[in-house]
């Protein structure tokens, strides 16, 4: 009998039904502790910022906060969630490439600690809004270093045509944005932010990012007298979804980042005091599981389908990114495979495939399929496609579990609809 967080899978299903998202909190806390242990430096003040877009709810934010990490938000909803979780506003980092006036005004009103400015137009709006506050706001400028990590084209964020940040090649626009921010005495321009992609399996990508940014900061200092005290390197730390994945050991990648940063600071004397990183996926992905009930099966000339009672409505990643997952049938983890199956969801869409090909033992109607490493960008990207309510989310830890997000009812899903008059 398989367990998640010490709780039998069958007990979770019996109590909560399916589809169900379950987090092994023991696993998640071990990963948080690993970051806390390894991202430390005698030279820099280091900060780990949880990229909450991977999975945002009050219970998750509280766990992250308990480890002393900062929290990255990218919308008003994520900002409000973090504040309701009780985190100090000064520990919130507000991102986004198209922040609304409402979001900027709210962030300033609530004294959000740092705003990551994405472009020149936003710098102008932020400067104007910050004239009317009575406290300083810290700002980083997001830049595009032109580095392409080897990852899916939809999640590469550092190449020259990315929608994020100002290209380092566009020096006049970049400097203009910084000068606009520095005009306002209420704005503390702290430095630069960059992010080069997700699921990065090569530490050399981070090394090149750091070298590029330090070289550019040195050029800004020499040409324009612009200095930085903070460098946010973004995230991209990989998780293991299948046996094909080989994430860099965290201790190794942290050492590469901090050693390279120290070498570059020794070389250029830029004045950098703080180095931040923004893991999201790597903190929560491997702790997450999606539990589904197996329904009908179907044989075609080339495939055998196992249908489950969820799908792209609760995990869009296979359809969107061609993401790969591993899974097992509860209670038969050690049984010999009967054949190769395609795991398909119940959405009315041919692309609603959760796993294209997987070897499994014989499945029966009502069996539980346990899909692994679903803790990042599953529930966070869930939709109401086909009018399917959102699943419940459960935290399991040391043999006990609690619901942190209730299962959505059909009544709740329809509640915003207006009756025709």
Tell me what you see in this structure.
This protein is an alpha/beta fold. The chain has two domains: 241 residues, Alanine racemase (TIM Barrel, Alpha-Beta Barrel); 130 residues, Lyase, Ornithine Decarboxylase, Chain A, domain 1 (Beta Barrel). Helix 6 packs parallel to helix 7 and helix 8 packs parallel to helix 9. The chain is globular. About 2% of the residues have low confidence.
What is this structure, in a nutshell?
By secondary structure, the chain is an alpha/beta fold. The chain has two domains: 39-279, Alanine racemase (TIM Barrel), CATH 3.20.20.10; 285-414, Beta Barrel (Lyase, Ornithine Decarboxylase, Chain A, domain 1), CATH 2.40.37. It has twelve helices and 20 strands.
List the helices and strands and how they pair.
Layout: E1 3-4, E2 7-8, H1 9-16, E3 20-24, H2 25-38, E4 45-51, H3 58-66, E5 70-73, H4 76-84, E6 92-94, H5 101-109, E7 114-117, H6 120-129, E8 137-144, E9 166-167, H7 171-182, E10 187-193, H8 203-224, E11 230-232, H9 250-268, E12 274-277, H10 281-284, E13 288-299, E14 304-308, H11 317-321, E15 327-329, E16 339-344, E17 353-360, E18 368-372, E19 392-397, E20 400-405, H12 410-414
Parallel strand pairs: 3-19, 4-5, 4-12, 5-6, 6-7, 7-8, 8-9, 8-10, 10-11, 11-12, 14-16
Antiparallel strand pairs: 1-2, 3-13, 13-14, 13-18, 15-18, 16-17, 19-20
Helix pairs in contact: 6-7, 8-9
């Amino acid at each position: 009998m398989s367990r998640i967080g010490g709780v039998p899978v069958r007990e979770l299903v019996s109590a909560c039904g399916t589809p169900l998202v379950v987090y092994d909190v023991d696993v998640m806390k071990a990963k948080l502790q690993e970051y806390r242990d390894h991202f430390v430096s005698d030279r820099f003040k280091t900060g780990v910022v949880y990229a909450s877009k991977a999975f945002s709810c009050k219970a998750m934010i509280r766990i992250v906060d308990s480890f002393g990490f900062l929290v990255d938000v990218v919308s008003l909803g994520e900002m409000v969630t973090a504040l309701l979780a009780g985190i100090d506003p000064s520990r919130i980092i507000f991102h986004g490439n198209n922040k609304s006036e409402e979001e900027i005004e709210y962030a300033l009103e609530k004294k959000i600690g740092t705003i990551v400015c994405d472009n020149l137009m936003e710098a102008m709006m932020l400067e104007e809004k910050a004239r009317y506050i009575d406290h300083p706001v810290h700002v980083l400028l997001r830049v595009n270093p032109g580095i392409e990590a080897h990852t899916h084209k939809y999640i590469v964020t550092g190449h020259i045509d990315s929608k994020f940040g100002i290209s380092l090649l566009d020096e006049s626009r970049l400097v203009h944005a910084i000068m606009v921010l520095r005009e306002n005495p209420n704005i503390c321009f702290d430095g630069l932010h960059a992010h080069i992609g997700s699921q990065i399996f090569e530490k050399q990508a981070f090394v090149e990012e750091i070298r590029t940014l330090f070289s550019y900061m040195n050029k800004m200092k020499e040409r324009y007298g612009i200095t930085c005290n903070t460098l946010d390197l973004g995230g991209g730390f990989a998780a293991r979804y299948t046996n094909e994945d080989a994430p860099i050991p965290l201790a190794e990648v942290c050492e590469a980042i901090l050693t390279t940063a120290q070498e570059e600071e020794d070389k250029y004397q830029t004045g950098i005091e703080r180095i931040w990183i923004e893991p999201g996926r790597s903190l929560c992905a491997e702790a997450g599981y999606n539990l589904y009930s197996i329904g009908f099966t179907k044989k075609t000339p080339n495939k055998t389908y196992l249908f489950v009672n969820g799908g792209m409505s609760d995990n869009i990643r296979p359809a969107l990114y061609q993401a790969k997952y591993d899974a097992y049938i509860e209670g038969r983890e050690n049984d010999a495979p009967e054949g190769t199956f395609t795991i398909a969801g119940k959405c009315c869409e041919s692309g609603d495939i959760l796993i294209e090909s997987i070897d499994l033992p014989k499945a029966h109607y009502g069996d539980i399929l346990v899909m692994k490493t679903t803790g990042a960008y599953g529930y966070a990207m869930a939709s109401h496609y086909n009018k399917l309510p959102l699943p419940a989310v459960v935290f399991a830890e040391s043999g006990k579990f609690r619901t942190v997000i209730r299962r959505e009812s059909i009544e709740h899903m329809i509640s915003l609809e207006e009756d025709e008059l």
